[in-house]
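Subject: design request, 109 residues
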């Protein structure tokens, strides 16, 4: 899995990155993955609009999910994440989960 990053922006300057969380692995509990699989539609991971809808519909499940992925992430920091960065972030995360579960076809039999 490629490294995924989450930028936290400054309260004073919304264009200044205050902190960046990064991880190249996702180690989730079964219950967390189960919650996420109830939110995402694996057939639409190439559709940015569909991903945006999944994020909005599943926000309650996704907030704790982000905290599981990015250790140390706080509720306050979550208020300073740019929405436009959420679609590629979740696309990468969803793909990583699917790859870990061997759900997505990789062209091999």
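Subject: RE: design request

Done. Sequence follows.
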């Amino acid at each position: 899995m490629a490294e995924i990053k989450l930028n936290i922006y400054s309260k004073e300057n919304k264009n200044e990155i205050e902190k960046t969380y990064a991880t190249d692995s996702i180690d989730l509990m079964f219950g967390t993955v189960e919650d996420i699989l109830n939110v995402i539609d694996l057939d639409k991971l190439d559709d940015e609009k569909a991903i945006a809808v999944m994020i909005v519909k599943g926000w309650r499940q996704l907030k704790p999910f982000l905290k599981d992925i990015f250790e140390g992430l706080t509720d306050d920091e979550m208020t300073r994440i740019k929405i436009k960065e959420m679609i590629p972030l979740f696309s990468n995360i969803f793909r990583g989960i699917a790859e870990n579960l061997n759900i997505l076809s990789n062209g091999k039999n």
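The chain has a mean pLDDT of 83.
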